Every structure is written in C-alpha cells, then in structure tokens.
Amino acid sequence: xxxxxxxxxxxxxxxxxxxxxxxxxxxxxxxxxxxxxxxxxxxxxxxxxxxxxxxxxxxxxxxxxxxxxxxxxxxxxxxxxxxxxxxxxxxxxxxxxxxxxxxxxxxxxxxxxxxxxxxxxxxxxxxxxxxxxxxxxxxxxxxxxxxxxxxxxxxxxxxxxxxxxxxxxxxxxxxxxxxxxxxxxxxxxxxxxxxxxxxxxxxxxxxxxxxxxxxxxxxxxxxxxxxxxxxxxxxxxxxxxxxxxxxxxxxxxxxxxxxxxxxxxxxxxxxxxxxxxxxxxxxxxxxxxxxxxxxxxxxxxxxxxxxxxxxxxxxxxxxxxxxxxxxxxxxxxxxxxxxxxxxxxxxxxxxxxxxxxxxxxxxxxxxxxxxxxxxxxxxxxxxxxxxxxxxxxxxxxxxxxxxxxxxxxxxxxxxxxxxx
Amino acid sequence: xxxxxxxxxxxxxxxxxxxxxxxxxxxxxxxxxxxxxxxxxxxxxxxxxxxxxxxxxxxxxxxxxxxxxxxxxxxxxxxxxxxxxxxxxxxxxxxxxxxxxxxxxxxxxxxxxxxxxxxxxxxxxx
Lengths: 420, 126
Fold this sequence. Notes:
The structure holds 2 protein chains of 2 kinds. By secondary structure, chain A is an alpha+beta fold. Chain A contains 11 helices and 7 strands. In chain A, a hairpin with a 5-residue loop joins β4 (357-362) and β5 (368-375). By secondary structure, chain B is an alpha/beta fold. Chain B has helices at 10-21, 35-45, 61-70, 88-97, 109-122, and strands at residues 2-6, 27-32, 49-53, 78-83, 101-104. In chain B, α1 links the parallel β1 and β2 (27-32). At the A-B interface, α7 and α10 of A face α1, β2 and α2 of B.
C-alpha cells in the first residue's frame, strides 16, 4: 500500500518536472503544443486518481501495464509536440521502467523499456525529417544508454521482488503446515494423556471400586484387594506424573529418554523391550525423536499383542534413524490414514514436516518395523561418546493368560534393567 | 451359563473372572486380552455369553461383536459389550454393532453378572 502511494508520488513528480522543463523552453507556445500538454496533464492527474481509488481494492497487473505504456506514449507525444524540445526531456523515459519496477513483472518491464526505446528512435527520426530543431544523435545515444541501464535494473528489481514474493508464499505455506502440526500434536497428546489415565489409573480405580462393593456385600477377601488396588493406583498415578516430568528432563539425553519411555511401556504392558542407542547419540539432544518413540510404542502397546519390542537409534549419513520393531504378525496398522487420531499418521506428518520420513513395513520373520528418519541438527553437536554402549533390556515376568485354568495374574510387576 | 471374558486390562479381567467363578450360575470357559484371541476362543468354545470390552487391541469390542454376529460358527452366542464410557453414543454404537446388551463397566460385578443373565433370557433361542 505504501509503495503504491510512493509510486504515485514519484510519477506525479516526474510529470511535474517534465512540464517545468517544457515551460522553461521556447517551443511550447503553439496551440498544438498547449493542447498536448493539457491532455498530458489531464491524463496524469486522472490516471493517478484512478490508481489511488484502486488501492482500496485489488490492483490489476493489466491496469499497471496499460498505465506504463500510456506514460511512454504521452511523454513521446509531448516531446514531439514541443517545437524546440530540450535533449534532457528524452531522459525522462528512463524513469518509466524504474517507476513500474515495483509492480510489473520483468517481461512487461522489458516490453515497456523496448517501447520507450522505440519511441526515442521515432522522435529522433521524426525530428530529423520534419522538426525545425531535431533531437541530436548525442541525445539519442545518451537516452538509449540510460534506457538500457534503467530497464536492466528495473528487470532485476522485478525478478528479485518476484523471488522474494515466491519465498514469502512458501514460508507462509510452511507456517500453515507447522501450525497444523502443532494443533495435531496437541490433539494427539491430549488423546495420549486420556489413554494413559484410562488404561492405568482409571482401570485400577474401577477394579478397586468393584472390590469395595464386594467387601460391603460380605466378601471378606475383597477388602485387602481393594487396599492393594488403592496402593497400586496411587503408585501408577505418581509414576504417570513422574514419567511425564522425567520425559521432559530427559529430553536433553536421548539414551535416558528412550530408556524411560521403554520402562514406562514395559510397566504398563508387561513385555520385553530392548533399547539400543548408538554411542554418538546416547547423550544427544533430540526431543522430537523421543516423541516419535513414545507415540510408536504407544501404537504397539494399544494395537498389538507384541511381547518383544526392539528400539534402535543410530545415525546414517546426516540423519538420525529410529527403528522400532515388534513381533506381532497379526498387526494390520501399517496403512497410514489422514485421521487426526491415527498415531502413525501423526508421526508421518511430523517427520515430513522436519524434512524426514516414516515407513512401516513387514519384517522378514512376520513382525512389523517402524522406521523414522529425521535430519541430524548440525547446530547441536553431540558430545563425545560415553563409555556405556546404551543397550538396555527391560523385562517383566508378566505374560498374557490365554486359558481360564491359569491362575489370576498378580498385581505386582517387576522390572529389571541390565546393561550390555 | 458359560462365559468368555475379553478385556485388555488384566486387573479388570481377573477380577471379573474371579467374581463370575464364585457364582454357581456361571462357568468361565476362557479369558482373552485382545479381540482376535477372544474371537478364536469364542468360535472354538461357543459360550452362552461373550463378555466383551469396547476398547481392546487388535480388534476392538465393536468389530469383535460384528464378527461374532456374522459368523455361522458363533450362532447362539449372546454378546454383552462393556464400556466405562457409558453414554447414549457408545450404547447406540454397541447395539448397532449387534450386541445383545450394553453394560456400564463401572457397575458392581454382581450387577454385571445379573445383566448378563437378563440379556441371555431376553435373547430367543436360535
């Protein structure tokens, strides 16, 4: 908006300078010259007013181009109409492509420059044949030189303006994508929290409530079970809260973070998870990779019966690779959907948003493997490798029961962490 | 009455199995922790009632109910769907999937058992 108004001011100033230059000369007193000058002044005023009114709406590129060609035509007409045109008058043609370089594309500016050059040649040819005081060869040469340079500079300005406009458009698109990702991630996190509380604490409290009811109805064995259930629910709630906090703290250490997420999954699910982090990544900072691991393990936990899970993090070229493999051959959730509730789709979107990739494929032995590849951030170099290799095995004695004859499962779950 | 109990939460599942086992009118044939295992058990054992949780891995309770109702080998199995989210939307979805009854999971175990008996009585013999 401001640049459009400045362009109008610039255009009016050029028109005023042309008029002053003509009026200071000797050849403007003929009736034809006065009429042409009056028409030119009227054209400049009218087109400027039209342009200012158009600023309230969308300005048309066609209108801008027509105004540029009109400026060339009017200036040439004024020069032809003056009996003794000063040589400097032709140089004002150079202002036209410059003035429109902020609005018109480079090809149109080149066309305007060529038209102005053609006009200058026509004036020179017209003057040498019929004009009493023709434009000299020197004036033509200087004008041509100035027009070529002004046109070239204007085209470069227009090209740079277009390039920046395209870049701004791309950045706006990226910003919209990122906002979408943030909203999706927030929704996914909300669902994850709800699942976490539902699957852990809520179920325990539900069972405890049942035990309390049974105790009130005379089942003497139910009361100790209810007390144990309250203890267990309290521990789960504390661990859930602590887990959320510790994941944030551990976000500065990839190895610890993956170990904690795996331990939490093991406690909830009762499965064996092996975590293998490459030494160069063990103490690295990659919170996004932790988020990916957490969501993918959640997917495995919620939608599979896998009892053996392998988590690996390693570098490949300039990328970090997170691979999560489970042993449930019946798992079918390998087709990505656009549903916001789909954890795999959310992981895929986030990975692509940061220039990475995500694939889910069948392992040779029938299980499934999730692989996330994200760029290694060069601005955050990893510290030297630690002595520990980063391999952990998290095991639980709990196994699912498939027969009614099996004894009921114990509420207690043990976890052993061992280093390779 | 023979029952197969399907719930991914082993605390709830074991408590329900224990409560039903203490009653003389129930015999628990099997328990399953996911929908696919439950379907295999139901096809194999053909219980009178399948007590199915709505939220389970591999196959959720609604999909499992549809499978049971569409499988010729499961004719005569009464499906009772459980959910802790006991609102009209979930209840409607359960009945639309083909469940014979929908029970609020927060109800006492005794009432859940009684509701299973009531559901079985209301279902006409195949």
